[in-house]
Amino acid sequence: MNKYIPTIGIEVHVELKTATKIFSNSINGYGQMANSLTNVVDLGYPGTLPTLNKEVINLAIKAATVLNCKIRKEMHFDRKNYFYPDIPKNYQITQNETPIGYDGYVEITINGEKKKIEIEEMHIEEDTCKSTHRSSKTLLDFNRAGVPLIEIVTKPCISSGEEAKLYLEKLRELLYYCDISDCKIEEGSMRADANVSIRKNEQDPLGTKCEIKNIGSISNVAISIDKEIKNQIELIENNKQIKQQTKRYDDKLGKNILMRTKETGNDYRYFPEPDIPYVILTEDMIASVVKTIPMLPDERRKVYQAKGVSELNANKLVQNRSLSDYFNKLLDTNINFKIASNILLGDIQAYLNKNEKQISDTTLTVTRFEELVKNVEDKTLTSKNLKDILVTVLEEESSISTIIKKSGIENIQDDQALRTIINSIISSNQETVNDYKNGHDRAIKFFMGQIMKETKGSANPKLAMDILLEELKK
Amino acid sequence: MKYLNKPILEINKLLKEKVIKPLDLVEEAFANIEKNKALNAYITLNKEEAIKTAKELENKEVDNILFGLPIAIKDNIITKDLRTTCASHMLENFLPIYDATVVKKIKAKNMIIIGKTNMDEFAMGSSSRTSYFGAPKNPWNTNKISGGSSGGSAVTVAARDVFLALGSDTGGSIRQPASYCGIVGMKPTYGRVSRYGLVAFASSFDQIGPLTKNVYENALLLNAIVGKDDNDLTSADKESEDFTRLIGKDIKGMKFALPNYFMSDIVSQEIKEKIISVSKILEKLGAKVDYVDVKYLENAVTLYQIIAMGEASSNLARYDGIRFGYSLPNPTSIDNLYYETRKTGFGKEVKRRIMVGSYLLSGENAKIYYNKALSIRDDMQKEFTNLFQKYDLVIGPTTTTTAYDLTDPMDDPLKSFLDDVLVIPVNMAGLPGMNVPIGFSKDNMPIGMHIIGNKFEEAKMYQLASCIEKELNLALTPGGEINE
Predict the structure, then answer these.
(1) Which fold has domain A415-473?
(2) Could you tell me which chain B residue has the CA closest to the CA of A85?
(3) pTM (predicted TM-score)
């Protein structure tokens, strides 16, 4: 296996989250009745002309920026001509000569090491319509026709399915965090094609490549790439020729299925789109878009960990953008972030998941959360207390202290008072003290039970335990 | 009583005073069209709807100079609920569901659309003979071509069915038929008039413009159709202006350039003589006419064809039988649907241009031909820009000959080259160009002068054109009728 070096390039199409389509004012929506989101422009009616949605340009500038691309200041659109029922004008408006972004990269961490996945270029284009094949007929839904896309093309610099997977995860996270796309692979708003080839030595020219199209999930990208690499190695080992083919990954069969064998290159008869004048980007325009880019995921992880959040929790927070955005609002306070992250990712997230809510749907303002964390930190609230009052905290608006008071929680904070109770329990249960000294662990349970009984459950368990052990050692 | 032959101001006055109603004008127009049926100027008449609109207008205030006037629209301009065929079998039954921007503007002025005029199929041709519906005939001699591609619009105005029409000009298609038919035709600056709803032939050249019986009415119609359109990114953001404002103004001190190429052997002797006699009149009026050399003029047609056919091959790809237009019944496969629909739906000239255009964009050819042509087009524009630093306008003949016989061969490449050689440089440079009649040949066919302006200087062109019109005072009604 190690004799071969796989080379993989990935093309990703991402649907942009704009209100309207790229070249018309039709709604950009998903899951609506077929052909309800179309107009004469989308259908390529005679006489119609494209307009240009500025939002698309702005999102593309954003994407180019977070993918570390250089941004082209003067660009045009091109027509890619080909006959297929899914493209209403029989040409696609795209950017062939002057992609808006080029020479970028996305950084991944593989086996503890950082690697830059280089981006060759990213360009803007229109999506095609959706065709559904039913026996001998093909049904066309033009709702998707004219939805804005960016296509992101890597250099052939990826060397395994795992790297491809990490790249796509990183890409998805970046685009999602910047509100460029919702990146839902299952709804087709993010689609990946992989070009795979192998060769024996770094110095050799790239081998014949196979393209795997429209892979349905990120994990399947890794699986299908690794299967293709294995397949190509087997072919070479058996002295067979690799043909330039287009395949698709079949999830059910777990196999790459041949779609077609390419005989000659396609001739798309590209030429500059005469209906759309050159687009000129000024530094000011770019700067005003860049300004809207939020703190990116990697930066968030770094900041959270610097504030004392565990790596695990930092990752979990970043995985949930609304929680992470919420957490960012706390960053200027001086609460205990470790505790804050535990509460947010523990009981609160459980509540949100159970009730299918977002943190913004609750009454938990930053100020109230701050108060909540402080009460947990100074042990006014035990984890059990927290569970008891959580629904009230998240659904009502009164202050945390009021809620604590109302719910009758008054933890015995005073060490001395608690110590007196504990000492009295110890002295009246000398036999159990002996059990403890003889190594019977259940003695502790007994004492804790007694303490809780005596304090009606209001003692802070950790504190009680600490004092108990201390006193028993005496 | 006939009203459509009267000057527009008089008609407007009669309408305002309720001496006549829009319906009188509409009925007169349809009577004229019926009388001149043999000219084959129309593909579709809008009779019912026009009469209905005319009646509705009776209750409305006459609020503008174009109110209630009948207008003919070239059949490549999209009209809602009114068949728009582009003179092609492909769109023979195409009933649009929206209005072109210019049509909206026409309707906003309460003008009345009389019908859709005949033309070359998809505007591809110079004689309107590529029409699926047969060629229109020249009112001055029905054995002669009307010119094209806006042949029907030129014919209906020349025959005085109506006196206002819209055409489109990609490579001379307004000016050349206007010249052959003895009327005024203006191709405005590229971007002046919205192309939204003009069925695309060659997007970077196509432009809608007015064809009328005289200069003043032409300027008035242009007033009504110009303006920035959010639906057309190539439309120019220009303040509105009155194109009649310089009409009647003295041309004394103005400088005109007459390119030597326009007066070379490619142009017939009698046309050249007419141009010379007009330029003498201009000089007499205190203007200066200089013979100049202009680079690239002789290359314009070749370069134009590369760009126009390339764009056309792509623009016409949408006629595939799937969403609109002719469709092969019971296709056996998608390829079968494509091949047969396009084979049957398009005529010979259209298919020829699609094939040549596809070849020109194919593989490396796009770089060798199309991109190179675009770059020389830039040079041509610069050449004209320099010329306009020294001269107010450029003048010359519109055509090399007068209208020729309908029976002349259609596949003579030299002839079709000469048809457009004088008008195409204007499209290449994105400039405004117009035809104004300046007389007749020995066989009584109209001869026209071509006036070319700098970008967005249509008003100045109307100034010169109206001056020539006034000086020559030609009787321009076919059959020798004298204008009232």
Answers:
(1) Arc Repressor Mutant, subunit A (1.10.10)
(2) B322
(3) 0.91
